[in-house]
Structure formats: structure tokens, C-alpha cells
Amino acid sequence: LFFNINRFKHAVYCYAAYLGLVAYMLLGYMKRKNMTGRIYEPFAFSLADWGMLAFSVVCAISCALSHDPQSAFTGDEGRKSGLLFILAMSAMHIIVSRSPNAGKRAVEGLLVSGTLVALLGVLNFFYIDPFGFYGPRLSENSVPRFISTIGNIDFFAAFLCLYLPCIMVFCVKAQGIKSFLCFPAIAIGACAIVAARADGAMVALAFSFFSCLLFGVQSRKTLSRAFFAMAAALFGFAGLAVIIEAHPDGYMTLEKSLQEYLVKYPSLMSVCAVLLLGASYALHKSKKLLISKKTARFLRRLIWFLFICAVFALVCLFIYYTFINTEAE
Fold it and tell me: Whole-number mean pLDDT of the chain?
């Protein structure tokens, strides 16, 4: 069923993008006012639009020069990532970038749909297959490589790189009940990082914490919500560790993956989460602590500096183990 659902998702996305673009162009031609009543230019291009157009042109040239242009266009031999899909993404970019409040609605939709995808990945991690995705076409050795509605665990990790940072930043910027609704979503996303068992998922975790802190240092309230979001992720790791300990033979192996260390110390994760929750509560109730613009700017620069240092260290390790110490296991 994995093979069928991927074809179905590809078809739905492409048809929706192209039909949406046609509808947008017709409406933009007939009515040159948006929902707020302000005049707008539906066919005016911004810098991001020109960048997307250049990307599409480069992909079109690559498709034309390919040894198999038909396959490069449809993407049948490249996980459906052909020119047809790339043009659909360009069409969706045009629709979303010109729609009022589209970004906010997209994140809210991701909060619901992404949580369900992540939850299914966690269930599959424990060999629970509620929709029967693991059909006869998948061998027993291939089952651990496929998870949730995404399929391949590397693509699932790529999905988490988009899902978890967006949800954690949404938790920081949201107010009221929406911020609390992000707590279970972040916890499930953290469990999905372990279920992915791919190095890309660890990148999602690092970038999530980085984005959370970057947006959190703007004010006292946002920093409180940032600590709240990070505590939710740590509680997710601790909870999954307890379940794994209770069912030692009922989950996919974590050997030779960095995710093994995330569930190795549940007590430490729980203590750190409680401390972050305490700090979040103290910041929320405190009225004396104020973060000035100068302090916020310094903290953001410090976070960027640490992030760049971490990326530089990873690049150095990649170069060392790829070109220098090639015999290392």
C-alpha cells in the first residue's frame, strides 16, 4: 500500500496545485481586489517569485537535456520528483504567497495533519499497523525502512525537518490555548524523531531547538513559550523511553543510530524538562524581567554564532571521514 499511497499523494498534490493556479489567475483577472478590499497586482513578481521562476527554468532545462526526458518530466524513476512535481510546487508557491493569512493557516493545518503523520510513524515503530500499509509487496527486511504515510525513513526524517521546527516556532508565537495545543504535537514529533532512526531526524531536532530559541529571545513571554516547547520535546523522549523499556522486544531496532542516546537516559530528560517548565512558569509570572532590544539582538547573534560553529564542525567531520580517514568504520 505504500506504493499506491505515494502515487495518490503525488496526483492529488499536482492536480490541486494546477487547478488552484488556474482558479487564482481567473479570479485575479476578473477581480483585482482581495478579501481586505485593497488593490493588489496578482501577476506582479517579488524577489522570491523570481527565484522560484529561475529554479523552475533550470529544472526545465535539466529535463530537456536528460537522457530520458519523459522519465525526468514525470519522475517515475525518481520517486515522483520530476519536472511535473517541481512545477506544481512553483504553482503552489504562487497561490500561497498571494493569499491573505495563508502562512498562518498552513501552519495550523500542519499542526493537525503533521501530528497524525508523526503519530502513525510512532505506531509503526512499535509494529502497530492500523491501516495495513505493510502489505505483501514489502519483504520482512524492508519493513523497518518504511514508516508512516511518507514511506522511506529518510524522507520521513526530511518531513520532520519541516514539521517540528514549524510547530515549535508556532508554539512560541501563538497565544492562549493554541500554545498549549502544541504541547502534545511537539511531544509526538519528538517521539517520531526516534522512530525515524535516520540522521536527518537529528538535524530536525537541532534545527527545532535553534529556531525555538532564536524566536524566543524576543521578549519574556516568547522565551517562556520557547522553554515550554523544548520541555514538551524532552517529555516526549522520556515517555518513549519508558514505553521502550516496558516492551524491549516490541519496537524497531535503534542500534547504530544517534536516536539510541535520546531514549537512553529518561530520568535526565525528565529532570531537564521539569526545569524548563519551571523556568517557563517563572518567566510567565515574572513582571520584573524585561528583555531589551539590545539584549535580544545580542542573544540572537550568539545563537547564530553557536549554530554556525556547529554546522562548521559537522562539515569538518564530513570532510575528514569522507576524504581523509576513509577506512574508519
Answer: 78
